[in-house]
Amino acid sequence: MRIIAHIDMDAFFAAIEERDNPRVRGLPLVVGADPKEGKGRGVVSTANYKARAYGIRSALPVSTAWRLSEEAKQKGLPPVVFMIGSMRKYGEVSRRIMAILHAHAEHVEEASVDEAYIDLSFTGSYAKAIALCKKIKKEIQKKERLTASAGLGPNKLIAKIASDRQKPDGLTVVREEDAESFLEPLSIRTIPGVGPKTEQKFNKLGIHTIKEMKRFSRDELSELMGKWGSALYSRLRGKDETPLVEEWEAKSLGEQETFEKDSRDASFVFERLNALCAKVHRRFVKHGFKTFRTIAITVRFSDFTTKSRAATLGEPSTALPTLQFEALKLLMPFFDARENPKRKAIRLIGVRLEKLE
Ligand code: TTP
Ligand code: MG
């Protein structure tokens, strides 16, 4: 029997800020772009539930959020506290929560910064899966002082929709035999993949709920929706076979470059090496890694023989100049007898960072 859990943190960024800033606890709170007294041009990342009561939502222009806050103030309600937030902090909290999940199950799909699917089939029964879910929620609460909502079901589709039914701090269980009746009264928008355009299109045909959408045959849906129509037909009936997508975090990052022409020109190759280092370093930063410790280079000669050399630093480093310097030290011997006695021309070089944190 397949049992999938979907865990989604409640008002994630806002909950972290409430936790860390006692002064704003209990007040309506928005994390997002600077509102600049209503002139801000960015959007809301998230709002806590108090701010949602004012009609504020993720992706709303922050200027609109500001206006809604002003309107609330006029009515004597507390104004919204706006915070810019720190993606770095949220990323760290996310990683710690994911680590909790991984400690309880072998198969976990980290679906976004604050949500994951967990394959709980190994527990063998809904009773045991429910108990484990409760344990995981408690552990998140204890270790991070944050609440999560969970959904349990026979597949990812049902688990995901279920986790959203009783927010915050909810646990919603939908067994396979109940999946269809669970879905029927819900809006068609609840089905992941049904966006505002599809919703409008069907609303115009008088279709609002999943039950109503089930009137269409598989062929009719395919005609209306193209390729996705057939999958949609199954989903409306609570069927979804998609597997968890478990991506192991990259433990190394690398880039390589094949030259237009094989080269013995040291200054040209060194210049390309510097550029490759910069490229790898950009990805290193973008992926949110903090430090690297091992630098490896690869050299392929014109005859396709390939050599790799690596250096491990005494201390983890973050700096591009360190990377460039170490990579250069590794590459230099390929321009003399030490690594290249026959003076072969170089066809390709690569740079790789390992021991990433
Ligand atoms: P969500 O899980 O969609 O929202 P949430 O956790 O804030 O609230 P809920 O209780 O309804 O789950 O998104 C997780 C985080 O991702 C959210 O806290 C902020 C960020 N986010 C954005 O930055 N922009 C967006 O448009 C959305 C939807 C989320
Ligand atoms: Mg969430």
Model description:
This protein is of the alpha+beta class and 357 residues long. It has four domains: 4-10 and 87-176, 2-Layer Sandwich (Alpha-Beta Plaits); 14-83, MutS, DNA mismatch repair protein, domain I (3-Layer(aba) Sandwich); 184-235, Orthogonal Bundle (DNA polymerase, domain 1); 252-354, DNA polymerase, Y-family, little finger domain (Dna Ligase, domain 1). It contains 13 helices and twelve strands. It has helices at residues 12-20, 49-52, 62-74, 87-104, 126-144, 156-163, 179-183, 196-204, 210-213, 218-225, 229-236, 266-286, 320-331, and strands at 4-9, 29-32, 44-47, 81-83, 108-112, 115-119, 148-153, 171-173, 253-263, 292-301, 306-317, 346-354. The chain has a five-stranded mixed beta sheet with strand order 5-6-1-7-8. Strands 9-12-10-11 form a four-stranded antiparallel beta sheet, with helices on one face. Strand 5 (108-112) and strand 6 form a beta hairpin. It starts with a strand and ends with a strand. The relative contact order is 0.10. The model has no long low-confidence stretch (mean pLDDT 95). The site of thymidine-5'-triphosphate (TTP) has 14 residues, from strand 1, helix 1 and strand 3.
